[in-house]
Amino acid sequence: MAESETGQERTEEATEKRKKESRDKGEVVRSKELTTLVMMLVSGAGFVFLGSALVQDLMQVLRAHLSIERAQIFDLASYPGLLFDTLQFSLFSVMPLFILLVVVAIVAPMALGGWTFSIKPLKPELKKMDPIKGLGRVFSLKGLMELVKALAKFLLVGAVAYFLLKNNIEGFVSLGNESLVQGISRMGEELMWMFILLSSVLFFVVLVDTPFQMWDHSRKQKMTLQEIKDERKETDGNPEVKSKIRQTQQEISQRRMMEEVPKADVVITNPTHFAVALRYDQSNMGAPIVVALGADEIAGHIRRIAVANDVPLLSAPPLARSLYYHCELNEEIPGGLFLAVAQVLAYVYQLRQYEFNGGVAPEFDTDVPIPDDLKRDSEL
Questions:
Q1: How far apart are CA 2 and CA 145, in angstroms?
Q2: What is the distance between the alpha carbons of residues 286 and 46, in angstroms, rounded to a whole number?
Q3: Is the pLDDT score of 92 beyond 50?
Q4: 195 φ, ψ (degrees, to nearest 5)
Q5: Which residues pair with 290 in a beta bridge?
Q6: How many C-beta neighbours within 10 Å does residue 235 have?
Q7: Upstream peptide bond of 271 is cis (omega within 30 degrees of 0)
Q8: Can you name the residues that pair with 277 across neighbouring β-strands?
Q9: Alpha carbon 128 to chain centroid distance?
Q10: Burial class of residue 75, CB neighbours in 10 A (0-12, 13-18, 19+)
Q11: Among 356, 254, 358, 269, which Cα is nearest to 307's?
Q12: How many CA atoms lie within 13 A of 203 on its CB side?
């Protein structure tokens, strides 16, 4: 099991943040064997389709640019121009194959890890020059895997090459009995197919190397439990700090809410568990709004502020529960509670009239109409 620099085992799968950081550093899955196999097979295929034209162009170069007249031999000033023309014609002849190989060299490595570009691997690091760590990499599991791959390629390619030469030796010897053009053409064709067969042998090495590289990359990216905790703190913030912030926000919100209680028209209670303060301005509001609500200790605080500021307290347990569970602070009450709250406000206005004119106000009928879907019979 891989270990971190602190000695802790890396047992946890890498997070998305760690994977992104690895890609930014250029650390992606790569298989050199897969890239080599693809390039060799594409090279062979390129020779199959372009080889004939390439051979003809090169033969034309030999005829046209190496057939020098006697006068040109002694004209040393013409040599650079002749050499430039030969190189230019040869370059144009091999250009299609060259472009094909360049494209494959760029695209083939992307088969596993996808496209990534980073200059961070080019930055010099002293730890990469540490001879002890260098020896550790040589004798590591990856170093052993590289040795096994090298031996496998040597044995496989050597065995197939020996088999091909043994079975085609007579054909190569018989090339001496053919004309020059025909012999070169036939030899090129034989060598081309032998090259493709030898390249195909590397497929067995790729079958082993590709899963190993994917496993090794995943193993290196694994994290310790402490690394995951540290990353979570860095990403989400320290839980203690976040808890303190939430607590502060709640205190500020409650303080602002309590400042609105004196402005309320009525506080509806349960009478002890819940308290909901309502305010209604006929000229500016379409419906009453909730300016404060709470349960238990907060409810008690709301009631005390209401009493201190002469805000009417009205005990209506069913309505208080419905308002507490179905209303949001500073939002209008639900439409289903309009009629019940209207009766409460009408009683409060009537109560003020009795207090102003004198007399005893009638008792409030707590049996206000509440829709079944807004009723809450259970208490906190």
A1: 17
A2: 79
A3: yes
A4: -60, -45
A5: 278
A6: 9
A7: yes
A8: 267, 292
A9: 28
A10: exposed
A11: 269
A12: 7
Residue 224: count other Cβ atoms within 10 Å of its Cβ: 19
Tokens of residue 230, six digits: 């540290």
Separation between Cα atoms, residue 342 and residue 67, nearest integer Å:
113
* Cβ count within 10 A of residue 21: 14
First-residue to last-residue Cα distance in the chain = 51
Is residue 142 a contact partner of residue 48, using CB atoms and an 8 Å limit? no
- What is Dmax (Cα atoms) for the chain? 140
Residue 336 predicted with pLDDT over 80 = yes
Over 60: is that where the pLDDT of 380 sits?
no
**What is the SS3 assignment for 220-237?**
HHCECHHHHHHHHHHHHC
Strands (E), the chain: 266-269, 274-279, 289-295, 313-315
Task: Give 4-65 as a DSSP string.
Answer: -TTS-B--BPPPHHHHHHHHHTT-----HHHHHHHHHHHHHHHHHHHHHHHHHHHHHHHHHH
In this structure, the number of other CB atoms found within 10 A of the CB of residue 12 comes to: 14
Q: Is 56 left (phi over 0), alpha (psi -120 to 50) or beta?
A: alpha
Letter for the amino acid at 19? K
| C-alpha 170: how far from chain center | 59
Question: Which uninterrupted H or E stretch holds 285?
Answer: none
- Provide the β-strand partners of residue 289: 279, 332
Other Cβ atoms within 10 Å of 100 Cβ, number: 17
Question: CA 263 to CA 281: how far, in whole Å?
Answer: 11
Q: Which residues contact 334 (CB under 8 A, 6 or more apart)?
A: 326, 327, 374
**Beta-carbon-side half-sphere exposure of residue 197 (alpha carbons within 13 Å):** 14
- What contacts 298, CB < 8 A, 6 or more positions away? 254, 275
What would the two tokens of residue 191 be?
A: 């060598």
Model pLDDT, residue 44 = 81
pTM of the predicted model as reported, rounded to 2 decimal places = 0.47
* Residue-wise pLDDT tens digits, 167-215: 878 777 777 777 766 777 777 777 778 888 888 888 888 888 888 888 8
The distance from CA 154 to its chain's CA centroid, rounded to whole angstroms, is 40
91 CA to centre of own chain: 44
As given in the structure block, the two tokens for residue 291 are: 């300016």
Tokens read off for 311: 């805000």
Lookup result for tokens 């550790």: 136
